[in-house]
Amino acid sequence: MTDPAAAHTRMVDQLIDAGNLRTAPWIHAFRTVPRHPFLPRFYWPTPTGKWAAVDASDSEWIDRVYTVTSVVTQLDNDPAAWGHARHAPRPGTPTSSSSDPGLMATMLEALDVHDGQRVLEIGAGTGYNAALLAERLGDDLVTSVEVDPVLADQARAAVAAVGRAPTIVTGDGRDGVPDRARYDRIIATVSAPTVPPAWIRQTRTGGRILLNLYAELGGGALALLDVDGDRAHGHFLADYGDFMPTRDEQPDRTTQERFDAALHAPAGDRGHVDVTSRTLGDLDFAMLAALLVPDVGWITFTPDGAPEQLWLVGADGSWALIDANGDTEQRGTRRIADELTAAHRTWRRLGQPTRDRLGLTVDTSGNHALWLDHPHQPIHSTTRSPR
């Protein structure tokens, strides 16, 4: 088995070389806190699309732990699934993971914490990120909340094993942790479709919130917001970052299940649009599309002897397919191909902006306004009832 210390050093060196780690305090934290105590067992993808169970008894354990990638730690919200997968790889939907260390480092650097500041992490998961924050700031200044009580207990044990003791509480992360507010920084390592008002209320004026806005279409939108009273505003990062959604936002049916249903549905209306199956390959457009076309998953499919198809499947059962030539077929109450086309036209009208030119303003009433460069150049706004 690979030496854990050598593998740990190699991973941190990779993060520095890639530009994910830039400042001395975070480099020190990553060098001090190893990853393997937080991943005693996990799932690894197989070529068949199933998940194999891996633990410390496997020769590849350390090499995989210190790969710069996310590692799945739970399937289907079921703690017992790992035991079944230990006998043979099994299918399942990931519901918790240890985040990609490169993304973790990028976000921690962007958070711009300073000595003495209080931080709330949403989504403790394995506890690795909380331990890094505690190493950087001190245990008393770090709070982390985890909705799953089993994962919360495991995270507490793991951070203790590396000599750290941040406060890890069990609860719904959307509510924050009011008993320990206010915070100078909130960082979410789960994704949420909107910014919960509680996060704004629990952050001091001048503080920051960093989160991935959840969209089934993807997009990897990382919003870095400065808080001012009951409002927060800021730009999206240039970096791509996706996290698993909060438990209540996990779709009732997976994209694959919706796609399978659409394949057997009656034929839809045929037409032609000015986007193709490859349009979402532009990550800058993909982020805007994800924000403008909600509740839609996607999958690519290549029928025998036919061009590649992009299938868009809505939570309400609506669906659309778009091929490499822009030919389309769609069915349902939503005309999803038309929605994607409208989003693409908006992106072109705006000059095909990069993702970091887009910004967001939110408030505690649930208003979310998307803008280009400055808040006075609005693109789209929506209101969701505040929790």
From TrEMBL:
<keyword id="KW-0808">Transferase</keyword>
<comment type="similarity">
    <text>Belongs to the methyltransferase superfamily. L-isoaspartyl/D-aspartyl protein methyltransferase family.</text>
</comment>
<feature type="region of interest" description="Disordered">
    <location>
        <begin position="81"/>
        <end position="101"/>
    </location>
</feature>
<protein>
    <recommendedName>
        <fullName>Protein-L-isoaspartate O-methyltransferase</fullName>
        <ecNumber>2.1.1.77</ecNumber>
    </recommendedName>
</protein>
<dbReference type="GO" id="GO:0032259">
    <property type="term" value="P:methylation"/>
</dbReference>
<dbReference type="Pfam" id="PF01135">
    <property type="entry name" value="PCMT"/>
</dbReference>
<dbReference type="InterPro" id="IPR000682">
    <property type="entry name" value="PCMT"/>
</dbReference>
<dbReference type="GO" id="GO:0004719">
    <property type="term" value="F:protein-L-isoaspartate (D-aspartate) O-methyltransferase activity"/>
</dbReference>
<keyword id="KW-0949">S-adenosyl-L-methionine</keyword>
<keyword id="KW-0963">Cytoplasm</keyword>
<dbReference type="InterPro" id="IPR029063">
    <property type="entry name" value="SAM-dependent_MTases_sf"/>
</dbReference>
<dbReference type="GO" id="GO:0005737">
    <property type="term" value="C:cytoplasm"/>
</dbReference>
<keyword id="KW-0489">Methyltransferase</keyword>
